[in-house]
Amino acid sequence: MTSTSDRPTSSIHDVRQAGINPNHWYVVAQSSEVTTNPIAITLWNRSIVLFRDSQGKINALEDRCPHRQVKLSHGVVKGDRIECAYHGWCFDGSGKCVDVPYLEENQKLPSGKIQAYPVREQDGFIWLFPGEKKAESIDLFGIPEWDHLNYIATVSVIDCNAHYSYLIENLMDMYHGHLHDNWQAWADPVLQELQETSDRVDALYQAQSYYKIDKIWSISQLFFPALRRLHPEPLNVSYVYPHWVSTLGNDFKIYCLFCPRSLTSTRAYLIHFTSLNAFWRLHKLPVPFRRFVKNRLFGSAQKLLDGLVRQDVLMIEEEQQAYLNNPQQRGHEFNRTLASVQRLIRAQADLEEN
Ligand code: FES
Ligand SMILES: [Fe+2]
Fold it and tell me: From ligand 2's centre to the CA of 112, what distance in Å?
């Protein structure tokens, strides 16, 4: 067993072994995934059951029945309670046992509670706060474009068998565009500025972009490389711990919302927005029609986004495997953004440990 003094200091400790700082809002599901059928999720080794009660309210409980330790997510929702599949004990949204169907007159309900987590439904996602601090004291990383009528969303789910640091490094390192050939929206990035604080890293690259959605046909550039015309644009990428956001010029916005599951497994949601800001005539149309258009076009960049994600996941999982085979091996890194990202991960993980 290692004592605390044997533990490496923060400056050298291995980023691939870093934990998470739980005092943040993490994204654990898409809104549409959570219904009155309970679902099981994992956030940094914690098994959690999510369910929507009869009022539509989201609840998040430890996924463990205190009777025989089986998963509550096998159960069913009845009104505002969840009923365990095994013997039918019922729990309310605060984690309190409120019914044991075969309780005898002289017996009392168990008094202990299972853990309930602060949870919010906002901008199309379920956000969960696993920390000890007061959840209300920590800002939730919002996505204003989600409900905005001028933005069309596409969501790609990233599931990778790798530590979350590999994914965020991929997202912050714009030089990896090489991998995507000419299917990404930018080319020839050059890192111009790098800023680092205790809770975020901002990198500004100058790049070439074909992405300018100012005519109806410009959207077709996404799908037909021959139609693309490059022009210079600033490319901003930010790690706003624990999530990521990027902008390219005025029309391109993309987010990645993180749900680290364990040391070697990460789920994340990549959300790409196509902007309709340039089409002022469209904005004069009635709101219900604009909402209809927005909803109909939801997911229109799905194939493209999923294809890019597949390429990234292959690389990220190989990095993880190489690390597991030889944890001492280190590559050369020329992009200083990654050193900043690793420092931030270590600092946030240390906040949790101390
Ligand atoms: S194990 Fe859940 S009610 Fe018995
Ligand atoms: Fe990529």
Answer: 46
